[in-house]
């Protein structure tokens, strides 16, 4: 049997870090949404019980370090499944970019092997397993737009934002999420107003959403990599309605409500960094 799953990237419209916890993770409060830049996952049953990962991308590991492999292994062990799976990842989301590419691949594999192996588990049950793989995996399982708390694994759905264009630009460098959290000094960090962002979504108010974007981790990555600030400035000058770094970075996104301005921002960045995308906000839950 063969099935396909779509694994969309996420952006953090709002990311607040509250405090460091006893377990080393940080308590966060985030508003996240999916965008139409996605990896494509192909799954085939392997009757010999093995798990294999393949990708044409040279940036992703093809062994147990791959989050997609870990997702399949977790499902196989947890539900005592005899069959195996070949996972092919068509990698379209930039790696180590702050767009949750690996987490979304893992979530797609959880959903996919659930179907492939006929397990019929609920998304809520899969989300509990997903949290063992990474903090963003639970959100990626549901997709859409959501409020995420805890270390990111407690997910409550929110209404989709009004349709708009999202321009994504990643400078040619990767960022380790762990390093960014380690370098965060909460005493002088910026804290976005999460409640105001949730209200803006409830009101379906694009201007209010743009006014409320904010990310506590942005200052850390800006200090580490000046390219992030340069991209932000370039996007602002080209007419973006809102500009923010996603997750721990280094990808910066802008929100724009006309395609002409989205194109202008895209053109202004093309000479500056090679990985630039103009995509739609998905907002609602996207499957397969
Ligand atoms: C930056 C975000 O992507 C925003 O959506 C997430 O907070 C990070 O999610 P993720 O990449 O799935 O992160 P994980 O794989 O769970 O954790 C990677 C590392 O980031 C740090 N980490 C992550 C999440 C969190 N709430 N607090 C943390 O301090 C920890 O040092 C952890 O070892
Ligand atoms: N399927 C995968 N796709 C991409 N990276 C993977 C995958 N599996 C493991 N990795 C490893 O995970 C690391 C982080 O990659 P990823 O693209 O998920 O980062 P990210 O977008 O910054 O994630 P987040 O936004 O959740 O912090 C990379 O160094 C990569 O080697």
UniProtKB/TrEMBL annotation:
Gene3D superfamilies: 3.30.230.10, GHMP kinase, C-terminal domain (3.30.70.890). Keywords: ATP-binding, Isoprene biosynthesis, Kinase, Nucleotide-binding, Transferase. One of its GO terms (molecular function) is 4-(cytidine 5'-diphospho)-2-C-methyl-D-erythritol kinase activity. ATP binds at residues 94-104. One of its GO terms (biological process) is terpenoid biosynthetic process. Its EC number is 2.7.1.148. Residues 66-144 form the GHMP kinase N-terminal domain. Pathway: Isoprenoid biosynthesis; isopentenyl diphosphate biosynthesis via DXP pathway; isopentenyl diphosphate from 1-deoxy-D-xylulose 5-phosphate: step 3/6. Residues 198-271 form the GHMP kinase C-terminal domain. Pfam families: GHMP_kinases_C, GHMP_kinases_N. The active site is at 10, 136. InterPro entries: GHMP_kinase_C_dom, GHMP_kinase_C_sf, GHMP_kinase_N_dom, IspE, Ribosomal_Su5_D2-typ_SF, Ribsml_uS5_D2-typ_fold_subgr. It comes from the Bacteria. It catalyses: 4-CDP-2-C-methyl-D-erythritol + ATP = 4-CDP-2-C-methyl-D-erythritol 2-phosphate + ADP + H(+). Belongs to the GHMP kinase family. IspE subfamily. Catalyzes the phosphorylation of the position 2 hydroxy group of 4-diphosphocytidyl-2C-methyl-D-erythritol. PANTHER family: 4-DIPHOSPHOCYTIDYL-2-C-METHYL-D-ERYTHRITOL KINASE, CHLOROPLASTIC. HAMAP family: IspE (MF_00061). This is 4-diphosphocytidyl-2-C-methyl-D-erythritol kinase.
